[in-house]
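Journal club prep, shared notes

We agreed each person brings one worked example of a sequence with its structure written out as tokens. Mine is Cd2+/Zn2+-exporting ATPase. I'm keeping it raw so we can talk through how to read the token line rather than staring at a rendered picture. Sequence first:
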Amino acid sequence: MSALVQFLENRKATTQGNILEKIKVNGELIAAITCGVLIFLGWLTDKSGAATSSVILYLLAFVIGGFAKAKEGIEDTIENKELNVEMLMIMAAIGSAIIGYWTEGAILIFIFAVSGALETYTMNKSHKEISSLMELQPEEALRITGDSEERVHVSELVVGDLILIKPGERVPSDGEIIKGISTLDEAAITGESIPVSKGLKDEVFAGTVNLNGSITVRITKPSHETLFQKIIELVQSAQSEKSPSQLFIERFEGKYVKIVLAVVALMMFLPHFVLGWSWTETFYRAMILLVVASPCALVASIMPATLSAISNGARHGILFKGGVHLEQLSDLQAIAFDKTGTLTTGKPEVTDVLVQDELSSDEVLLVAASIERHSNHPLANAIVKYAQEKLAEKFIDPESIEDVPGWGVKASINQVEWKIGKSSFVGEEAVRQFKNNKSNELAREGKTVVFIQRGENLVGMIALKDLVRAESMNAIDQLKKQGLYTIMLTGDNTQTAQAIASESHVQEYIAECLPENKVDYIKQLKEKYGNVAMVGDGINDAPALATANVGISVGDGTDVALETADMILMKNDLSRISDAVNLSKRMNRIIKQNIVFSIGVIILLILSNFLQVLDLPYGVIGHEGSTILVILNSLRLLK
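Then the structure, token by token:
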């Protein structure tokens, strides 16, 4: 019985906690609705002749609806020692009440409260991206120690620990699979909804979901340094950083408020003496001016749009480190790409195996792979991997192996000497005669050729190439359609650079580019084109990423590249750059719409007031209505 009572008490406490949390999150909206209800009751009471009761209801509407904005305005004024829009609204509402326009003053507070609730909704919607991310990372992990397993908090995991992740569980920390095969849903990290198959030595990331197989993972990063945590930090940083447009509006706001107050002060006296208006009309028009000249819509033109766009990008695997970088993307004129690991896969792959006509290509490949498997060179690894996929036979154990630094490797198999290496290692003349100098043609295609010699005879050659990513060509074509000039920077020789540039469709390439030269080339491109982006993934790209107007890194780039870049593609899909440029252009277009619309409404309302054709209720609706429309227009960027 006591257990049941405890359960009911816990459930009651949880329910109360959820209700309080909802009230806290939606407090401004609840206050605005309550304010609207009180205004309606006050209007009904006033119509029935109970003036005193209606004033009390209006006062309650003032306090409940205006409390949040008044508090915000007063705190900001004290902190920054400068008046703001919120203070203008408070003064306008109080002024309306002083001259007997209780209903209009209360409506002003109500609509101002609604616009404030909409702004808060935008912020909450943006922060929700982080909250939903943070909920994805599990708090516990199943750590394997010897023959035992124990549940530990994620913060207790250290690099080298082994953890077991069962089907349906989320990965608690970044690591490498050492046992098992499974399919993982990486949508939280890359924005890509298609699950990815993972096996031995593949990386897994915190927050992703293990779908169908048990895997044992070795931890490679502490919990506070995981890619997942970096995403959260980047989005938080982006939301707090303000764009140049937003900073300008905020600086403008302080000066504009002072000008409005000075003009309102003059408006309280000059029309009476100069134009012969009555004191009541003069004060009434001054209060309308206070309402309609307030730059509420102008102030709300940028931040909601920027936050909405950043949230949209984060949801699709595009992370911006601040509104300034998102804003700059639409002005790009040129974009430079690192080759290896960015335009290409970064790993050489076998493309051609050519042998003497009377020999079997499989037999020659088997011998070459048997020798190369004793080397750690990337080309050797690629040959071994290709042989493993293509051949069923077991590798041969050489009787002896000798590494010849800078040239290749020598080995003895069945008392026959084999040489594998560059052309000068096996003889330039033999290379020229082999297959009618086919190696020269392969080199022009950007391929690296490894030659195989048996005894004194050249018997074969293997061509390898760092292949262009499948999505690179489409991504480059999309950027070119958007009017961007594309350049590839690479340390490769001219032949290879030309071949890769042709395959990837870039318009220009700079070959034999050393890491220290990349910064110089980016500076030259900035002088020529103005606004330039750099895309890279390696440590050697970091200086160039920092030099460019917008630095872009791919999600599996080095930590240095990720930290230096202004924008990160969580999935190594370069087509997302085009999406980001479109998002930036769309955001800037909406911001311009907001600014032009808000300024136009302010000018129209001010002129109407001076011509004495605008009454306070219409001034309130026109001004505050424009603020709400501006915010709603910004919210379109969430989609």
